[in-house]
Every structure is written in structure tokens, then in C-alpha cells.
């Protein structure tokens, strides 16, 4: 279990550091995770919406299974065990027994932290309309089930309690649900769909000393703020879940249109450190990002001969 525990231990160190705010780009597959690691993020967020659109080609309407989500989160977490991966766990995918099973799966995959929400099992993205919620007691039972499974596994995985109650039940009920979730074993509080900076400030104060989690969705209902502003408001974790999805959406749209309209995709060039021009985003660039040199070096280190003639 040592490898699986590294991310959770690191995340707890971050949460305990009064000067630290955890900024997580949303990633949904191997290449988006690799790029986020490459530019130096010290934590990643596996988005459930991104998992739905990338693995299923479907919207975030509760269509992913626990295996879809846990397997994807585990792949991302396995790329660098020193970098914590936080992951969406939707509603836990069922009643308390299923929530416990989900928790066990996420622990075994090396996930550092995950959030569970109070929507009905057929849930939807928190920034869509018409969300339906379970009763508070049902929600708290989910959190207790996750905490119990964590204790049984001897794990330190961080449980993040998310509520979508603000839209339909109001601020006071949302805060009540989060406080009850913390009493049930959650480590971090996540109020989804906040509509103003004042509401952001207010919930951090209401939940103190519990660390609070902020979701920055482009085109969503919550005003977008930067890391400095989030720190000043008191948040400890901020995710930008659309980071990878938007990049893929915009980039693929551009290249696909170019190929469709012109019959080709022209090479893009970049100036290298030595002053020479090279193709940007070449097949070798992608493979290097994903560990080409490291794979070759490992093979030779252990006595393999697969790559002696180069790659």
C-alpha cells in the first residue's frame, strides 16, 4: 500500500501548510495529465465530466460507472506517485455499500482525495440546471460509508464533501449539509455553484476550520477568480476542471477544420534552444512527453536490448 498512500500523504501535507493553496488543472487522459505534470503542477484533478466526454463521448449526466472513473483516476495517479491526484467520485455510485466499494477502489488506485456529492444517482454536472438531491441523512450516510471504508483500509485518502443544495435549497441548507458531512468524516467542504465572491467568502468563514474547495468552471455559474484571490478568500483547493477539455475541444476543432477544408494539416514550427527551427507538436514531441527516453533508459538499465539501436 506504500505507493498508493504517497499521494494522500502529500495532499494532507499541503492542507496542513497555512501558506499553501492547491491549484489543480483538470485532466482527463494520459496526454493531458502528462502535459500538466510537464509544466510543473504539484497536484492534478481528474474530472468526471472529462472522463465522460473522453471515454464515452457523452455529456456529464451520470453515465460513467465506478470502473470508468476509478480506472481512469488510477492511470493518471500512476504517472507520478509524488503528485497527488484528486478525483471526482460523483455520488459514490449507489448506497452506502457501493460508496464503500468505490472508496476502496479509489484507494487501491492511488487516488489522493475524492469528492462525493448529494445528488441522486442519475446526477448531472453541477453547473447544469435541474439537479435533484437526496435527503441530507442519505448524503451523510454516503460520507460515513466512505470514512468507514477508509478506516478499514488503513488509508489516509482525503474525503471531500460536495453539496449541490445551493441552487434548489438555499445557502443555509447547503452549509448545514456540509457541516453534517464533516461530522460524518469528511476532511474538506465543497459548495458547488456559488454565485458571488461574497458567497465564497461567507462559506469559508462558516465552515472554518474545515478546508474549503473551489470549482472554477468556464461558462458556469460561479465567477472566475485567480489563485491569489482564492487564497485571500481562504480556499485551500481550487480546481479548473475544464483545462484539459477546453484545450482538446479548441485544438481538435482547429486541426479538424483545417484538414477538412484544405486536405492537409500544415506543420507548425517553434524555435529550439539552439536557435534552430523544429516542428512543434511532432510525433516525437508527444512520445517524449509521455516518457520515451525514460522507457528506453529503463530497458537498458535492467539488461534489456529492445532499444539498443535507438528509438
From TrEMBL:
UniProt GO MF annotations: lyase activity
The organism's place on the tree of life at top rank: Eukaryota
Xref: Gene3D superfamilies: Phosphoenolpyruvate-binding domains
Entry keyword set: Lyase
InterPro entries: ICL/PEPM, Isocitrate_lyase_ph_CS, Pyrv/PenolPyrv_kinase-like_dom, Pyrv_kinase-like_dom_sf
Reactions it catalyzes: (2S,3R)-3-hydroxybutane-1,2,3-tricarboxylate = pyruvate + succinate
Pfam family, any one: PEP_mutase
SUPFAM superfamilies: Phosphoenolpyruvate/pyruvate domain
PANTHER family per record: PHOSPHOENOLPYRUVATE CARBOXYLASE, PHOSPHOENOLPYRUVATE CARBOXYLASE FAMILY PROTEIN
Protein known as: Methylisocitrate lyase
Protein source organism: Apiospora aurea
Lineage summary: Eukaryota, Fungi, Dikarya, Ascomycota, Pezizomycotina
